[in-house]
Each structure stands twice: as structure tokens, then as C-alpha cells.
Design a protein that fits this description.
eight-stranded mixed β-sheet; about 25% helix; five-stranded mixed β-sheet; about 575 residues
Length: about 575
């Protein structure tokens, strides 16, 4: 029996049992025998939307007697027709044995909006049926750990599916990775970085194993010197291919993906009653059909979609300026979802949860409401001021026709230090001085591990595993260590049990001289060395796990993690309201 049926089995409407716990900030569905409910007789209609910022209107539902009057959930209603209860007819009531509480955790995945959204307290098991689950094989880790960072790839496809979307460009398009954000959540869950990846970035798309409808796996060929947005949809590529492409570009192992189409923006902006936006001057864009007066407006439906799609209304009319506009919209959506008006309205956040799950495609690792709730629970305490939006630094492509700015390429002077910061789990937001001091102290301790004697190469014992590097990395590293560095006591253990973002060398205190010697050979920084609590037995090998930052033997794994963002980096915190210009 699902949550909805449990409540209705005793004529209790679950919406009237939905209570905000002020101590935890979570809603609790308290189902008990404290009162009987009369079934609701009306189902609220969805509000219509128009191209201007419309008022949300809906007919008022009849009052429902009971211990708590409030907004009814989407789909409202009393008992399901045709379902009877044991123990009596219309006047009978079976006692509810015991008190049960269904506690739903909240989250700040609200930013997943233009390219997917969770951002609501997830409710009722029937929401599982709304989700579209895609098997991406080994493209992601398939899970996240409590004591490790979380990396979620948020993809907004420009596929024209859904009612009212046929008029946006090519109605037969299979969709591209039109909007892509890598959302990195810190290990301690105190901060996050939302990294936008330009769709026109010239990159290499790797070979992508893609599961077919019949269950077989097809290796879609890779492609060199092509746009990043081609990593989805084209040649049958699935979201797993976009995940693999992002890892190749950033050196960051993606855990999960979330993907939506145009309807997510329209439905979610409507579910929260509109999203506040600000523009410095009036906008009349015939291409996106965005029509706004100067100043602040509240957008939903078609106008919300027009705002995040426009390329001609702001800045120099480029995709990079469109990314800034999307980031501003997402920040505003996050603030709206975390506002008191949303969190204290069961009707509003249940509408939001319904709209979000209907718009969402996810990987098998978060393919149920329970798994999504666990993920949301990891983020619920994060302050919006500690969430930073930024864009992967790029330059105009020198190979474009003269005078044409069509595509972009990576800007290594800014991209490399930014990506090292994300891989090193360094926040882009301002942190407390105490936290900075603690981080510096930890760094000093890590660097101290590299100071001291080095063992001869012949005495170094190590097992090598591939936890995220290119295919065959453990084998090529073993050969390199044996033939080039004289490490004859090394072994190849194949793939690691779990993928890791950064290369790690685990050793015991009495193996410190071996660890320093191997770190010198591999070009490891102090943070890559992980010392255990107790000495190892004689002839025990160390464990070297090659991460997503590993390129090839002989290439230093990474430079030191920068403490500050590159100068001139575009960024904005989620708690800041900014006018588009």
C-alpha cells in the first residue's frame, strides 16, 4: 500500500496530516487516528500560463474538516473510486493501529531547473513512476559516499518534445547537450560549485558504450574537434557519453546525471508561482519571444523559457552571455524554492515535486524517489551564499573564419587552476578565517609527508589499480615503473572497486620512505598521499589508485591546488540578485 492509500484507508487526507517540524525544517506526514477526514470533492486545476508574467490563479478547494486545514496536494481528492475498506460501509471506521510518521528530507538541488530539478521535498511513492531512468553503464560511479565530494552532471536538452515546444527550431531534432552544468558538492557539504560548460566548446568526444533498446551495448565512435553539445543525441549518444566527455575535459569523475527538456523550465517556474528576474532595460526579442519591461518581473511558463533561451537580449548576444542569464535565473529559482512562501505551502512544494519528477531523466544510481531523497538530504543544510556559479574559461576559437565568433576553446591559464580547485575540493566562496587556517594546517601536514628519506627504487613495493584513468592505465603504469624506474616489485591489480577523482597512494607509517620515492616518480603532490594508522607487515605493498586526473605515466598528476580563484574568473553566488544587461 502506498503513502496515499495508507492515509485514505481511514478517511484521512494525507495533505491535512502534513506538518512542518520547526526543529528539523522538514515536513512530516503524520498518519494517525486523531481525527477522521471527509473526502475532498474537488481537484484543483492547473493555472494557465501566457507570454507575459501572469498571475497564478486556481479555484479554491472546499474546506476540509480535520486537525489541520491547509493546501491540498496536487491531484487532491478523497478515496480512490472503486476501492472499499474492510470493516464497514460508508459510516464504518477501522481504528488505525499505531502512529506512523513519514519524514521527507529536503534539499537545495533547485538549481537543477534549467537543466533539471529536484529542489523540493519528495513525496509519495507514485512519484517513482514519473522518473525516466537511463542505464549509463560505467559512465558514472553509480553512487556517492558520505565522506567524499559529490559530482552531478545537469543536462538541459534542446529536444523539442512536449506540448507547445514544436515551434522552437527543428521539431525533429534528437536533442543536444544544450545547457550543461557540473555541480560539485564539497566533501563536508558546506559549499558547492556549479560549473557551466559552453555548448560550443571544441573538444574530443570519446568512444561511448551505449545501451540499446534490446539490451545490447553499442560502441558509438568518438569524434575529434567537434562541439561539446554533440556529446548527446547525435549518433545515438546517451547522457553517459556527455558524462564521459565532461570527465575527459575536466578530469573530474561524475557520479550521477539529471536531464530535462524545455518543459522543466515551464512547469517548475509555474509550480513555484513564478521566478523573479531583473533586466536593466526593456527587452523585445522576436526570436525567443521574450517581452519584458525594464526592472523586475516574475516569470513562469513560456516567458520563463524565453528568458533562459534568449541569445539576443543581453550582452554581446553570445552563448556565453546566455549562460550568465541562465545562472541568474537559477539563483533566483533557488532563492524562491528556499523561501518561506514555498517551504510552508504543502500545495506549492508538492506541485513542485510532481512537476520536477515528471520532467526528470536520471541514471540508475538515483533512479528512485528514495535515492533522490537521500541525495537531497546531503544538500539540505547548504547556505545559498556558499553556492557559486561559474563558467569553464574559454577563448574564441582561432580556427573560426576571420571576424566570426562561432566556437570556443579552453583557456588553459584560467581553466587549469579552476579545475584543480574543484578536483581539490576548494570552494570558490569566501570561507571563515578559521576554516582557512584549518585547511592550511592540513596542507602543511600533507607537504610534510614528502620530506624525509627516499627508499631505493628496487625496494618500493606497490599494487597499481585504475580508478578513473584512461583504459589500460594500470598496465601501462606498471610497465613504466618496471622498465623506466626500476621498480621491480610492482603489480597490476586491474580496475579499482570504486572510481576516484584524484590519484591516491595509500601506505603505512613504516613505508613512508617508499611512498616519498614513488611520489617523486609519479609527480604526486602531498594531498595524494594517505598514511594509515598502523605499520604494515614485511613485504606488504602500498596501494596506488590512479584517478580521473591521471593522464599517462611520467606526466605529473597535478600541480598544487590553488587557494584562490584565477583572476578575472566569471562567477556569481546563488544568494545574489543581479539584473541582466
Amino acid at each position: 500500500m502506498d503513502a496515499q492509500s495508507r492515509g485514505r484507508a481511514d478517511e484521512i487526507d494525507p495533505a491535512d496530516q502534513w506538518v512542518l517540524n520547526p526543529r528539523t525544517g522538514n515536513y512530516e506526514l503524520r498518519l494517525g487516528d486523531s481525527a477522521a477526514q471527509q473526502p475532498s470533492v474537488a481537484t484543483p486545476r492547473r493555472a494557465r500560463t501566457s507570454r507575459t508574467a501572469p498571475r497564478v490563479t486556481s479555484p479554491a478547494a472546499p474546506a476540509v474538516p480535520g486537525p489541520r486545514r491547509g493546501d491540498a496536494p496536487p491531484g487532491g481528492g478523497g478515496r480512490r473510486p472503486g476501492r472499499s475498506r474492510k470493516g464497514g460501509g460508508s459510516g464504518g471506521k477501522r481504528p488505525f493501529r499505531g502512529r506512523k510518521a513519514l519524514v521527507i528530507g529536503g534539499g537545495t538541488l533547485a538549481f537543477v531547473l534549467v537543466a533539471g530539478s529536484l529542489g523540493a521535498y519528495l513525496y509519495y511513492e507514485h512519484l517513482n513512476g514519473n522518473l525516466n531512468v537511463i542505464d549509463t553503464g560505467s559512465a558514472g560511479t553509480g553512487g556517492f559516499k558520505k565522506d567524499q565530494p559529490i559530482n552531478i552532471l545537469v543536462i538541459g536538452t534542446d529536444k523539442r518534445s512536449g506540448e507547445g515546444n514544436e515551434g522552437y527550431g527543428d521539431p525533429n531534432s534528437v536533442g543536444h547537450a544544450d545547457t550543461t552544468i557540473l555541480f560539485h558538492v564539497s566533501k563536508d557539504r558546506s559549499n558547492a560549485t556549479a560549473l557551466s560548460i559552453p555548448r560550443d566548446l571544441i573538444t574530443t568526444i570519446p568512444v561511448c558504450p551505449t545501451k540499446q533498446p534490446d539490451g545490447s551495448v553499442k560502441n558509438v565512435p568518438g569524434q575529434r574537434a567537434t562541439r561539446f553539445n554533440e556529446s548527446l543525441g547525435q549518433e545515438g549518444r546517451d547522457p553517459g557519453c556527455t558524462m564521459r566527455t565532461v570527465q575527459q575535459i575536466t578530469g573530474i569523475q561524475v557520479d550521477h546525471f539529471m536531464m530535462v527538456d524545455f518543459n522543466a523550465v515551464k512547469n517548475l517556474s509555474t509550480a513555484v508561482g513564478g521566478v523573479p528576474v531583473c533586466v536593466e532595460k526593456a527587452v523585445h526579442d522576436k526570436d525567443s519571444k521574450l517581452d519584458l519591461p525594464a526592472g523586475e518581473s516574475r516569470l513562469q511558463g513560456e516567458q520563463a523559457l524565453a528568458f533562459v533561451r534568449t541569445r539576443h537580449a543581453f550582452g554581446n548576444e553570445s552563448d556565453l552571455d546566455r549562460i550568465k542569464t541562465q545562472q541568474q535565473f537559477l539563483g533566483s529559482m533557488m532563492r524562491e524554492m528556499k523561501s518561506k512562501e514555498t517551504l510552508t505551502s504543502p500545495k506549492k512544494f508538492l506541485s513542485l515535486a510532481e512537476a520536477a519528477t515528471k520532467s526528470l531523466s536520471v541514471d540508475q544510481g538515483i533512479g528512485s524517489i528514495g535515492q533522490l531523497t537521500a541525495l537531497a538530504g546531503e544538500l539540505k543544510s547548504m547556505n545559498l551564499k556558499n553556492i557559486t556559479f561559474t563558467t569553464l574559461p574559454v577563448l574564441d576559437n582561432p580556427n573560426d573564419p576571420q571576424g566570426k565568433h562561432i566556437t570556443v576553446v579552453l583557456n588553459p591559464s584560467q581553466a587549469d587552476p579552476l579545475l584543480r580547485m574543484i578536483r581539490g575540493d576548494v570552494s570558490l566562496t569566501e570561507v571563515e578565517q578559521k576554516e582557512k587556517a584549518a585547511a592550511q594546517d592540513a596542507k602543511n601536514k600533507q607537504d610534510a609527508q614528502l620530506q624525509g628519506n627516499r627508499a631505493p627504487a628496487a625496494d618500493v613495493r606497490v599494487n597499481v589499480l585504475n580508478g578513473g584513468g584512461p583504459a589500460g592505465s594500470a598496465s601501462t603504469t606498471l610497465t613504466w615503473l618496471q622498465n623506466t624506474k626500476g621498480v621491480g616489485k610492482a603489480s597490476n591489480l586491474g580496475n579499482a572497486p570504486a572510481k576516484v577523482d584524484t590519484t591516491q597512494l595509500e601506505y603505512a607509517p613504516n613505508q613512508a620512505d617508499q611512498a616519498r620515492a614513488l611520489a617523486d616518480m609519479m609527480g604526486l603532490v602531498g594531498s595524494a598521499l594517505k598514511v594509515g594508522p598502523a605499520d604494515a607487515a614485511p613485504r606488504t605493498p602500498m596501494k596506488l589508485t590512479l584517478g580521473a586526473d591521471f593522464k599517462e605515466p611520467g606526466v605529473p598528476i597535478s600541480g598544487p591546488v590553488p587557494e584562490q580563484a584565477p583572476e578575472g574568473l566569471q562567477r556569481v553566488e546563488a544568494d545574489k540578485a543581479i539584473c541582466a544587461k
